[in-house]
Amino acid sequence: MPSSCKDIRAALADCLQSSECVLIQRNQPSDCLRPPLVDTLPTRCQQLKRGYGDCKRGMIDMRKRFRGNQPIAVSKELEGEKPGQLYAGAGFSRGDGVKATSGNEDEKVETVVGVDGERRVVR
Q1: CA 30, 32, 35 angle in degrees (round to 5)?
Q2: Per residue in 47-84, is it b (16+ CB within 10 Å) or e — as a string?
Q3: What DSSP string describes 97-122?
Q4: I want to staple 45 with a disulfide (CB 3.0 to 4.6 A). Which of 7, 15, 51, 105 is the partner?
């Protein structure tokens, strides 16, 4: 099996093993994934089931044939890490290069001599 779906498959298996359907009702994990029992699964397991199906479908999608599936990082979500920055460049919230002003600063005024010899004030 290609590595793009292994992480989500393992997360789904762990979720099923710890679900009420397997632990208390003693059903097979494969039976818990089929209808009438699929509705008794926790929301997280249902989401993982949906994601795993999308991953498997993406493996045969001709539009993704060369690029492959996008890697799914389940472990970061389980550890509670925030996702990284989605665009290039420095983040705005860090304040890099942004200077706070109070509004009472003096304007910078320069005097420039033009080609015709006339002095001009540039703000």
Answers
A1: 105
A2: ebbebbeebbebeeeeeeeeeebeebebeeeeeeeeee
A3: T-----S-PPPP-EEEE-TTS-EEEE
A4: 15
Q: Of residues 74 and 4, which shows the higher confidence score?
A: 4
Q: What pLDDT digit, counting tens, does each position of 21-71 carry?
A: 999 999 999 999 999 999 999 999 999 999 999 888 888 888 776 676 666
What is the rounded distance in angstroms from the CA atom of residue 75 to the CA atom of residue 83? 12
For 35, counting Cβ atoms within 10 Å of its Cβ (0-12 exposed, 13-18 middle, 19+ buried), the class is: exposed
Tally of residues, the chain:
123
Residue entry with tokens 């290609």 = 2
The first and second tokens of residue 64, run together, are 């993704």
Token readout for 96 is: 């890099």
